[in-house]
Recover the amino acids of this structure.
């Protein structure tokens, strides 16, 4: 399927939507009642959860909001439940309340499906089902039922089993209506639907023969573009899309597009996962180049936003590409090569309560080992240096098992490539606006060390700003107490602090604004 290359004006969409709704109501696909719906919530296609197969987000201006998700058939047919799509019903459901799910759907070839409103595992008990026949034409379908007893919030879902379909199925937005439903309430639920964004899955070619899977979030209802863009770069680890949800919401609301992508070898990206700075930088560079070829994107107004390791990758990309409009680093470490790595290790040990004078000999032994790795020394020399590291850590006061654990954390392939760490040098070359943000509760990128290093690297850049945020951990969530990773799951989404979202959003809105002077000729 080919996606439209631009967003078209909305009025024709709503005229067609209303027409299809009337057809659906006439055909009995929507449950009529004497009174209007008591409550209606219309959900963006981003809330569809697919399983057992692959899917892709795309655009189609024939459905409200202009977004859809394309669900592919299984390569090997299975049971009806072996693949499909679902969406949680918002809120709790009182006993005896009627719930109706109305949504847009079509199939590449005619196919019959059984829709359901049901609970989760282990029973997946259904309280409503409906048989529908999909065709290649978009239509409105529905399933409606009365709750037999009270259901807790988020415990029930709209289910679309597709394991037997053997055909591509496209799904649009969903309206969940409570109480009796009539023609006006259904039409109203979609007529007032104005999502902030339309998401499109994209594929980016990188080297060598690697395809990165990404999602391009485009502002909705703000014209046809071309839009400024923020390329979002993840931190260390096997990370895929999903690390910047609140920042994406802010960007699209401001009329700025956002791109996120799976690291190579992760999610739907091909290639082999490895923490190699040169490869990571090449992939981010490829993402920028791919976006500049898209008609929806203004290639002269592209920002790079990187968190943690991404805050090292972003300056590296911008250092080689002076047409980047602005760079934002969030807990991005600042330094070059082994001297920086030494400072980082010593800083972590001081944070753990060890005096610098006591740990320095052990850290120096570790740096000597890493230098030998980089110099390609033979196995015997490496083994002797490994033994020396353990000996020095034991002399510091570490039990042998703890010393061996410390060595295992330091002597890793990523550290063998410390010569690729050039974030201080990269930052010092930038003349575009740079925002570098650190948190006082960050145990990994310690603000008291890193912020001064950032200010030194950016000293000759009058358009640079270094911000240290009180109470922010490495993951920039409100409510951090210790700042450790154990708190992350309890504090909401990554980069979820409204303070951080406002800081980054305001910066990008100003720096990417037309006529800001930051756009560079393509």
């Amino acid at each position: 399927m080919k996606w439209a290359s631009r967003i078209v004006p909305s009025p024709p969409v709503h005229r067609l939507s209303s027409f299809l709704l009337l057809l659906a109501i006439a055909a009995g696909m929507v449950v009529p009642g004497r009174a209007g719906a008591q409550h209606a919530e219309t959900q963006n296609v981003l809330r569809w959860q697919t399983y057992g197969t692959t899917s892709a987000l795309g655009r189609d201006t024939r459905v409200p909001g202009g977004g859809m998700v394309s669900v592919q058939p299984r390569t090997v047919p299975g049971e009806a439940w072996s693949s499909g799509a679902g969406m949680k019903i918002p809120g709790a459901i009182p006993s005896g309340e009627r719930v109706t799910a109305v949504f847009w759907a079509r199939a590449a070839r005619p196919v019959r499906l059984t829709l359901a409103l049901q609970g989760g595992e282990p029973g997946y008990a259904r309280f409503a089902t409906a048989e529908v026949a999909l065709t290649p034409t978009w239509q409105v379908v529905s399933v409606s039922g009365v709750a037999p007893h009270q259901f807790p919030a988020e415990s029930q879902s709209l289910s679309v089993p597709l394991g037997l379909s053997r055909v591509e199925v496209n799904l649009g937005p969903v309206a969940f209506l409570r109480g009796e439903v009539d023609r006006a309430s259904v039409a109203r639920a979609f007529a007032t639907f104005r999502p902030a964004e339309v998401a499109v899955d994209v594929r980016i070619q990188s080297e060598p023969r690697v395809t990165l899977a990404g999602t391009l979030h485009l502002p909705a209802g703000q014209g046809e573009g071309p839009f400024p863009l923020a390329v979002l770069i993840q931190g260390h680890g096997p990370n895929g899309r999903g690390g910047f949800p609140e920042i994406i919401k802010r960007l699209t609301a401001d009329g700025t597009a956002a791109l996120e992508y799976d690291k190579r070898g992760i999610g739907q990206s091909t290639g082999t996962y490895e923490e190699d700075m040169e490869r990571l930088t090449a992939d981010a560079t490829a993402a920028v180049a791919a976006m500049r070829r898209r008609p929806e994107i203004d290639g002269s107004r592209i920002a790079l936003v990187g968190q943690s390791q991404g805050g090292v990758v972003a300056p590296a990309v911008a250092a080689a590409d002076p047409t980047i409009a602005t760079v934002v680093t969030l807990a991005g470490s600042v330094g070059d090569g082994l001297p920086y790595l030494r400072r980082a290790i010593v800083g972590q040990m001081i944070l753990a309560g060890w005096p610098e004078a006591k740990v320095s000999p052990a850290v120096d032994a570790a740096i000597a080992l890493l230098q030998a790795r980089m110099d390609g020394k033979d196995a015997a020399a490496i083994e002797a240096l490994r033994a020396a590291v353990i000996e020095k850590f034991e002399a510091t006061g570490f039990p042998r098992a703890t010393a061996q654990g410390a060595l295992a954390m330091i002597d890793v392939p990523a550290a063998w490539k410390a010569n690729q760490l050039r974030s201080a040098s990269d930052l010092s070359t930038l003349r575009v606006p740079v925002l570098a943000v650190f948190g006082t509760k960050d145990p990994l990128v310690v603000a008291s060390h890193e912020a001064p290093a950032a200010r030194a690297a950016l000293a000759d850049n009058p358009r640079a700003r270094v911000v240290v945020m009180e109470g922010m951990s490495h993951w920039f969530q409100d409510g951090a107490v210790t700042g450790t990773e154990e708190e992350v799951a309890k504090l909401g989404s990554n980069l979820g602090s409204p303070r951080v979202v406002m800081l980054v959003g305001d910066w990008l809105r100003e720096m990417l604004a037309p006529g800001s002077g930051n756009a560079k000729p393509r």
